[in-house]
Protein backbone atom coordinates (compact mmCIF):
# COMPACT_ATOMS: atom_id res chain seq x y z
CA UNK A 1 0.00 0.00 0.00
CA UNK A 2 1.41 3.39 -1.03
CA UNK A 3 2.43 5.91 1.63
CA UNK A 4 -0.05 8.77 1.29
CA UNK A 5 1.21 10.90 4.20
CA UNK A 6 2.31 14.41 3.46
CA UNK A 7 5.76 15.69 4.44
CA UNK A 8 4.13 17.71 7.23
CA UNK A 9 2.39 14.60 8.65
CA UNK A 10 5.65 12.62 8.50
CA UNK A 11 7.37 15.42 10.41
CA UNK A 12 4.71 15.32 13.13
CA UNK A 13 5.10 11.53 13.42
CA UNK A 14 8.86 11.93 13.96
CA UNK A 15 8.37 14.54 16.69
CA UNK A 16 5.73 12.45 18.51
CA UNK A 17 7.52 9.09 18.17
CA UNK A 18 10.84 8.86 20.11
CA UNK A 19 11.89 5.67 18.28
CA UNK A 20 11.48 7.31 14.89
CA UNK A 21 13.35 10.38 16.14
CA UNK A 22 16.24 8.25 17.42
CA UNK A 23 16.33 6.39 14.11
CA UNK A 24 16.50 9.59 12.12
CA UNK A 25 19.27 10.89 14.38
CA UNK A 26 21.27 7.67 13.95
CA UNK A 27 20.79 7.87 10.18
CA UNK A 28 22.05 11.47 10.23
CA UNK A 29 25.17 10.70 12.28
CA UNK A 30 25.99 7.61 10.20
CA UNK A 31 26.51 9.97 7.27
CA UNK A 32 30.25 10.85 7.52
CA UNK A 33 29.75 14.30 6.00
CA UNK A 34 27.06 15.16 8.55
CA UNK A 35 29.21 13.84 11.39
CA UNK A 36 32.14 16.03 10.34
CA UNK A 37 29.86 19.06 10.07
CA UNK A 38 28.39 18.53 13.55
CA UNK A 39 31.77 18.10 15.21
CA UNK A 40 33.17 21.13 13.37
CA UNK A 41 30.28 23.31 14.53
CA UNK A 42 30.56 21.89 18.05
CA UNK A 43 34.28 22.68 18.08
CA UNK A 44 33.67 26.25 16.98
CA UNK A 45 31.01 26.76 19.66
CA UNK A 46 33.32 25.34 22.33
CA UNK A 47 36.14 27.60 21.11
CA UNK A 48 33.85 30.64 21.23
CA UNK A 49 32.78 29.79 24.81
CA UNK A 50 36.40 29.37 25.93
CA UNK A 51 37.36 32.65 24.22
CA UNK A 52 34.45 34.51 25.84
CA UNK A 53 35.24 33.37 29.38
CA UNK A 54 38.95 33.82 28.78
CA UNK A 55 38.39 37.43 27.69
CA UNK A 56 36.04 38.05 30.61
CA UNK A 57 38.64 36.74 33.06
CA UNK A 58 41.36 38.85 31.40
CA UNK A 59 39.31 42.06 31.31
CA UNK A 60 38.28 41.60 34.97
CA UNK A 61 41.93 41.33 35.95
CA UNK A 62 42.82 44.33 33.81
CA UNK A 63 40.02 46.37 35.34
CA UNK A 64 41.14 45.57 38.90
CA UNK A 65 44.68 46.63 38.03
CA UNK A 66 43.47 49.80 36.25
CA UNK A 67 41.33 50.82 39.21
CA UNK A 68 44.36 50.62 41.49
CA UNK A 69 46.36 52.73 39.02
CA UNK A 70 43.50 55.22 38.84
CA UNK A 71 43.54 56.02 42.56
CA UNK A 72 46.41 58.53 42.35
CA UNK A 73 44.98 60.21 39.23
CA UNK A 74 41.68 60.81 41.04
CA UNK A 75 43.62 62.28 43.98
CA UNK A 76 45.38 64.73 41.64
CA UNK A 77 42.08 65.64 39.96
CA UNK A 78 40.46 66.45 43.29
CA UNK A 79 43.52 68.47 44.32
CA UNK A 80 43.37 70.43 41.04
CA UNK A 81 46.76 69.11 39.95
CA UNK A 82 45.31 68.79 36.48
CA UNK A 83 48.48 68.09 34.51
CA UNK A 84 49.37 65.17 36.79
CA UNK A 85 45.77 63.94 36.72
CA UNK A 86 45.98 63.71 32.94
CA UNK A 87 49.56 62.54 32.39
CA UNK A 88 50.70 61.04 35.68
CA UNK A 89 53.65 62.00 37.83
CA UNK A 90 56.37 59.83 36.33
CA UNK A 91 55.61 57.00 38.73
CA UNK A 92 51.82 56.73 38.73
CA UNK A 93 49.60 56.69 35.67
CA UNK A 94 47.37 59.57 34.71
CA UNK A 95 43.92 59.17 33.18
CA UNK A 96 45.27 59.28 29.62
CA UNK A 97 47.67 56.40 30.42
CA UNK A 98 44.81 54.35 31.82
CA UNK A 99 42.76 54.90 28.66
CA UNK A 100 45.74 53.89 26.49
CA UNK A 101 46.83 50.88 28.53
CA UNK A 102 43.55 49.47 29.80
CA UNK A 103 41.15 49.92 26.89
CA UNK A 104 37.84 48.13 27.27
CA UNK A 105 37.80 48.28 31.07
CA UNK A 106 35.36 50.16 33.28
CA UNK A 107 38.30 52.16 34.62
CA UNK A 108 39.26 53.35 31.12
CA UNK A 109 35.64 54.29 30.45
CA UNK A 110 35.44 56.30 33.68
CA UNK A 111 38.79 57.89 32.83
CA UNK A 112 37.13 59.36 29.73
CA UNK A 113 34.77 61.20 32.07
CA UNK A 114 37.62 62.51 34.22
CA UNK A 115 39.70 63.55 31.21
CA UNK A 116 36.72 65.43 29.77
CA UNK A 117 36.10 67.18 33.08
CA UNK A 118 39.81 67.99 33.40
CA UNK A 119 40.05 69.51 29.93
CA UNK A 120 36.97 71.60 30.70
CA UNK A 121 38.67 72.92 33.85
CA UNK A 122 41.75 73.69 31.76
CA UNK A 123 39.74 75.73 29.29
CA UNK A 124 39.90 73.22 26.44
CA UNK A 125 36.22 72.61 25.60
CA UNK A 126 36.84 70.80 22.30
CA UNK A 127 38.92 68.05 23.92
CA UNK A 128 36.48 67.98 26.82
CA UNK A 129 33.59 67.19 24.48
CA UNK A 130 35.53 64.44 22.67
CA UNK A 131 36.30 62.54 25.86
CA UNK A 132 32.95 63.12 27.56
CA UNK A 133 31.12 61.79 24.51
CA UNK A 134 33.32 58.66 24.65
CA UNK A 135 32.06 57.99 28.17
CA UNK A 136 28.97 55.90 28.84
CA UNK A 137 27.37 54.80 32.10
CA UNK A 138 24.09 53.40 33.38
CA UNK A 139 24.58 55.37 36.60
CA UNK A 140 21.98 58.15 36.54
CA UNK A 141 24.17 60.63 38.40
CA UNK A 142 27.40 60.26 36.44
CA UNK A 143 25.88 59.92 32.96
CA UNK A 144 23.62 62.94 33.43
CA UNK A 145 26.61 64.86 34.78
CA UNK A 146 28.58 63.95 31.64
CA UNK A 147 25.78 65.31 29.43
CA UNK A 148 25.73 68.50 31.51
CA UNK A 149 29.50 68.95 31.19
CA UNK A 150 29.17 68.61 27.41
CA UNK A 151 26.59 71.38 27.63
CA UNK A 152 29.02 73.51 29.67
CA UNK A 153 31.72 72.98 27.04
CA UNK A 154 29.32 73.91 24.23
CA UNK A 155 28.36 77.07 26.13
CA UNK A 156 32.04 78.03 26.25
CA UNK A 157 32.18 77.52 22.48
CA UNK A 158 29.01 79.64 22.20
CA UNK A 159 27.22 76.80 20.43
CA UNK A 160 24.02 77.39 22.35
CA UNK A 161 21.94 74.99 20.28
CA UNK A 162 24.29 72.07 21.04
CA UNK A 163 24.44 73.18 24.68
CA UNK A 164 20.65 73.20 24.95
CA UNK A 165 20.50 69.70 23.46
CA UNK A 166 23.09 68.42 25.96
CA UNK A 167 21.34 70.02 28.94
CA UNK A 168 18.04 68.56 27.78
CA UNK A 169 19.67 65.12 27.70
CA UNK A 170 20.99 65.67 31.22
CA UNK A 171 17.61 66.79 32.58
CA UNK A 172 15.76 63.94 30.84
CA UNK A 173 18.13 61.13 31.80
CA UNK A 174 16.51 59.30 34.72
CA UNK A 175 15.03 62.52 36.21
CA UNK A 176 15.60 63.10 39.92
CA UNK A 177 14.86 65.90 42.37
CA UNK A 178 18.52 66.54 43.27
CA UNK A 179 20.07 67.34 39.91
CA UNK A 180 17.40 67.57 37.21
CA UNK A 181 16.34 71.10 38.32
CA UNK A 182 19.95 72.27 37.94
CA UNK A 183 20.12 70.91 34.39
CA UNK A 184 16.76 72.49 33.55
CA UNK A 185 18.08 75.83 34.80
CA UNK A 186 21.08 75.50 32.49
CA UNK A 187 18.76 74.49 29.64
CA UNK A 188 16.74 77.66 30.18
CA UNK A 189 19.90 79.80 30.04
CA UNK A 190 20.98 78.14 26.76
CA UNK A 191 17.49 78.62 25.28
CA UNK A 192 17.52 82.29 26.27
CA UNK A 193 20.88 82.73 24.53
CA UNK A 194 19.20 81.36 21.41
CA UNK A 195 16.41 83.92 21.77
CA UNK A 196 13.90 81.13 22.43
CA UNK A 197 12.20 82.85 25.35
CA UNK A 198 9.08 80.66 25.38
CA UNK A 199 11.21 77.49 25.44
CA UNK A 200 13.35 78.91 28.23
CA UNK A 201 10.22 79.81 30.21
CA UNK A 202 8.95 76.25 29.68
CA UNK A 203 12.18 74.88 31.20
CA UNK A 204 11.71 77.12 34.25
CA UNK A 205 8.08 76.02 34.43
CA UNK A 206 9.17 72.38 34.50
CA UNK A 207 11.26 73.10 37.58
CA UNK A 208 8.26 74.75 39.25
CA UNK A 209 5.78 72.01 38.34
CA UNK A 210 7.90 68.84 38.58
CA UNK A 211 10.21 69.81 41.45
CA UNK A 212 8.17 72.08 43.76
CA UNK A 213 10.49 71.42 46.72
CA UNK A 214 13.64 72.39 44.86
CA UNK A 215 15.66 75.34 46.18
CA UNK A 216 15.60 76.67 42.60
CA UNK A 217 11.82 77.16 42.43
CA UNK A 218 11.80 80.82 43.45
CA UNK A 219 14.55 81.64 40.98
CA UNK A 220 12.66 79.73 38.28
CA UNK A 221 9.47 81.68 38.97
CA UNK A 222 11.31 85.01 38.76
CA UNK A 223 12.99 84.18 35.45
CA UNK A 224 9.85 82.62 34.00
CA UNK A 225 7.90 85.87 34.57
CA UNK A 226 10.73 87.90 33.06
CA UNK A 227 10.95 85.70 29.97
CA UNK A 228 7.20 85.65 29.38
CA UNK A 229 7.37 89.44 29.33
CA UNK A 230 10.16 89.32 26.74
CA UNK A 231 8.28 86.75 24.65
CA UNK A 232 5.20 89.02 24.60
CA UNK A 233 7.14 92.01 23.23
SSE inventory with pairings:
Elements: H1 7-16, H2 18-30, H3 32-78, H4 82-87, H5 95-101, H6 106-121, H7 125-132, H8 140-156, H9 160-172, H10 180-193, H11 197-210, H12 217-232
Summarize this structure as a short list of keywords or feature phrases:
233 residues; mainly alpha; Serine Threonine Protein Phosphatase 5, Tetratricopeptide repeat; 78% helix
Can you offer a commentary on this structure?
This protein has 233 residues and is mainly alpha-helical. It has two domains: 49-136, no CATH class; 138-233, Serine Threonine Protein Phosphatase 5, Tetratricopeptide repeat (Alpha Horseshoe). It contains twelve helices and no strands. It has helices spanning 7-16, 18-30, 32-78, 82-87, 95-101, 106-121, 125-132, 140-156, 160-172, 180-193, 197-210, 217-232. Helix 7 (125-132) packs antiparallel against helix 8 (140-156). The radius of gyration is 30 Å and the shape is elongated. The N and C termini lie far apart (95 Å). The model is unreliable at 6-18 and 49-59 (pLDDT under 50).
Amino acid sequence: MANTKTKKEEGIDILENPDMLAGKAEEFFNNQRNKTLVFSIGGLIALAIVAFFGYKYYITGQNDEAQQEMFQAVFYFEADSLGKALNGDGINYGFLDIIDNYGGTDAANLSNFYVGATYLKMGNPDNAINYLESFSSSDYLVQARAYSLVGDAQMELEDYSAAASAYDQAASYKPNKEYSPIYLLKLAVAQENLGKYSDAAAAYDQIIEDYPNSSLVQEAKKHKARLLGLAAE
